[in-house]
Automatic annotation (TrEMBL):
UniProt organism field: Citrobacter koseri
Keywords noted in UniProt: Oxidoreductase
Catalytic EC class: oxidoreductase
Occurrences of domain Oxidoreductase N-terminal (ranges): 9-116
Heme among keywords: no
Residue ranges of domain Alcohol dehydrogenase-like C-terminal in the record: 161-302
Stored Pfam families: ADH_N_2, ADH_zinc_N
InterPro entries according to UniProt: ADH-like_C, ADH_N_2, GroES-like_sf, MDR_fam, NAD(P)-bd_dom_sf
EC id: 1.3.1.-
Protein name in UniProt: Zinc-binding dehydrogenase
GO molecular function: oxidoreductase activity, acting on the CH-CH group of donors, NAD or NADP as acceptor
Gene3D superfamilies for the chain: Medium-chain alcohol dehydrogenases, catalytic domain, NAD(P)-binding Rossmann-like Domain
Residue ranges, annotated region (Disordered): 310-343
Classification lineage: Bacteria, Pseudomonadati, Pseudomonadota, Gammaproteobacteria, Enterobacterales
Length: 343
């Protein structure tokens, strides 16, 4: 082992963004890969998951997870292959789910790795519908949203990895599913491929009116991961005892100050009270990590039976633009997953 020399390219956080990240917030470094020591494995990144939570990890404000340190490798879920191993539980060629971040190679002590086998048919799925995005959709909708047949479910960012899965689960549960996405192409994808009943373009000038027309019986479940004007349009349509699973607020991740508009907090609080609405935020790993096997069993069955369409995965190389890499994670995408971050 260790006879072949490897070079590692990694993207590190050079400075903390103020607003949207720019190229100068990142720096690519390259150096030799160390030989794994006793009880360690050398991993080669094959797929990197790009997710909106990465923006929060660039900030040093208090949050549910520690920030990426300046000069530290950017975080990210990965599917990797074992290149060399001095660990009794892993052998070269094995595929694993890891958290190696934005780099070609990583040395791990094996803790936290999830085995995917020697020849998984679709290894990248472990970062999508069968991974963290799918788990987020599954637990948020079923445990907090608790959809019932005949109810109306509205899904923000409907073509992203989480939203696409939420909508499909909603259809399996017998809901009238209304998606919200940005642009005609994404809306067609949501209805024609994912099976949503309706999908609305939030860029439309009359979006709020379209949403009201699409939800004549009101809204029973709103899966929130965007915030902003979409939530403003949803709020007056919420039914008594509506449920709102809250997993993200993408529209505000790059904000540097509160929006310049009237304070709507009193209206929100009054609506939640009068209509007895349940609004609950959650962090998937911390709140539901103990239920991962339940999710894997049920979602695996749905995928095997063809009941869940797998959102498209982009396997193109990302080149050497860190800003381009992040911008893909900063918006609702039809695709999720990238090859390793080098060119």
């Amino acid at each position: 082992m260790g006879q072949q020399a490897y070079r590692n390219r990694r993207w590190v956080l050079a400075s903390r963004p103020h607003g949207a990240p720019v190229e100068s917030n990142f720096r690519m470094e390259e150096d030799d890969v160390a030989t794994p020591g006793e009880g360690q494995v050398l991993l080669r990144t094959i797929f990197l998951s790009l997710d909106p939570y990465m923006r929060g990890r660039m900030s040093d404000e208090p949050s549910y997870s520690p920030p990426v340190e300046i000069d530290g490798v950017m975080v990210g879920g990965t599917v990797s292959r074992v290149v060399e191993s001095s660990h009794p539980d892993y052998h070269p060629g094995e595929w694993v789910l890891s958290y190696s971040g934005w780099q070609d190679y990583d040395i791990s002590d094996g803790k936290g790795l999830v085995k995917l086998g020697d020849n998984p048919e679709h290894p990248s799925w472990a970062l999508g519908v069968l991974g963290m995005p799918g788990f987020t959709a599954y637990m948020g909708l079923l445990d907090i949203g608790q959809p019932k047949a005949g109810e109306t479910l509205v899904v923000a960012a409907a073509t992203g990895p989480v939203g696409a899965t939420v909508g499909q689960i909603g259809k399996l549960k017998g809901c009238h599913v209304v998606g919200v996405a940005g642009g005609a192409e994404k809306c067609r994808y949501a209805t024609e491929i994912l099976g949503f009943d309706i999908c609305l373009d939030h860029h439309a000038a009359d979006f709020a009116e379209q949403l009201a027309k699409a939800c004549p019986q009101g809204i029973d479940v709103y899966y929130e991961n965007v915030g902003g004007k979409v939530f403003d349009a949803v709020l007056p349509l919420l039914n008594t005892s509506a449920r709102i699973p809250l997993c993200g607020l993408v529209s505000g991740y790059n904000a540097t100050k509160l929006p310049d508009r009237p304070d709507r907090l009193p209206l929100l609080m009054a609506t939640l009270l009068k209509k007895r609405i349940r609004l609950q935020g959650f962090i998937i790993g911390q709140d539901y990590g103990h239920r991962i096997h339940e999710f894997q069993q049920e979602m695996g069955r749905w995928v095997k039976e063809g009941k869940i369409h797998l959102p498209r995965t982009d396997h193109r190389r990302t080149g050497k633009s860190a800003g381009g890499v992040y911008r893909s994670a900063d918006r609702e995408e039809l695709r999720q997953g990238r090859d390793s971050p080098g060119g």
